[in-house]
Amino acid sequence: MTLPKFTDHIGNEATSCAPVSFDFDRYGGMISNFTVTSPSGTLIKPLHTAPWAVEPVETFDDVSLVEQKLSGDFFCAPFGGGGDEPIHGHTANGCWDPVPDAQDGATDGAIIAAYQLRQKVQGAVVTKQFELHPGNPLLYQRHQFHGGEGHLPIGHHAMICVPGGASLSFSEKQFAATPMQAPEPDASRGRSLLKYPQKADGSGRLEMQSGEPVDFHHYPFAESHEDLVVMAGLPSAQLGWTAALAQQDGFLFFAIKDASVLPETLLWMSNGGRNYAPWLSRHKHVLGIEEVATSCHNTGTFSSAMERSPYGLPQGLTLSPDTTASINYAFGAMTPPDGWTRISNIEINSDHLVLVDVSGDTRSVTFHGAHFGL
Prior knowledge:
The structure is a single chain. The protein has one domain (7-372): Distorted Sandwich (Beta-galactosidase, Chain A, domain 5). The protein is mainly beta. The chain is globular, with a radius of gyration of 19 Å. The longest helix has 4 residues, at 51-54. β16 and β17 form a beta hairpin. The chain has helices spanning 51-54, 65-68, 296-299, and strands spanning 7-10, 20-25, 30-37, 43-44, 75-76, 96-98, 111-117, 124-132, 138-147, 150-152, 154-156, 158-161, 166-170, 173-178, 198-200, 205-207, 213-215, 218-219, 225-233, 239-246, 251-258, 264-271, 286-293, 317-319, 324-334, 343-348, 352-357, 362-366. The protein has 3 helices and 28 strands. It has a 9-stranded antiparallel beta sheet, with no helix packed on it. Strands 5, 11, 12, 14, 15, 19, 22 and 23 form an 8-stranded antiparallel beta sheet that branches.
């Protein structure tokens, strides 16, 4: 089976939007080859691509398109799929057509590209917009649902690969939990190590099935496992952030989100714990840093509900006719400064981000806060 690939190369060296470039595969909606060029000329490539997607010589006719092309970041609606939907929905398995004249709204030398999904999602027309701004080491994304009806779980699915390990940090959370069921409950197919379900405070300490404590702020914490951790944000949060400091692998990945729309952060720890195709125990040291809106923090399942959870958080995205729902998100990367070990805070301002190491040392990067209404 030959996989279609309609790739747009966005923000390449020919544009005025250094330091960022990336590829967008319109068939499946994958972002790949996201690259930030540092001031010294170093190419920073934090995002992961599955080994079978690099040279697609293998065929997996019974595997969804999103898993066949697994790479970088993609948008999920409904997150996890369900019913007649492919896993992570048509937004991660359908075709995105270019929207003409998207660049007309650009200012400050920005590059803007927009797309519309051919398939409707619960009756909604879905559009996607990318923005790159000169001097910004971030890719800005906006997804909009025009019309539609009902509710559904949604989320961004960014992935990094950290064979040298990563220290993880997050904006303030209410608690962390594991879902109702392990991702790999059948030992003949794979292995999960964490206890399911369980709930913990913000300290980051969870239990393995053996009862041994583990701190998920450091990944990987074991080998040959597939595990999930979901964190619930604060009801009052408007913006949230996540950071992964991978000193040995040469990058600091960070993401900014509209926390009022995407209140959960899901960690997908994929470290050789699946034995079946296409994984074949070779998908190692991969961490999905997924900013999502589901009921998982409440029910332990990746479902959705129209009402807020008892924790004050939306449990998905609610659609209604004649309205537009927007999801704003951005991620970026930089070279980790020497001696940095863990991010203690990201201060978000209208025109810059201040990344703070636990040592108190700081770095400032240019930021387009208007994307988030700042």
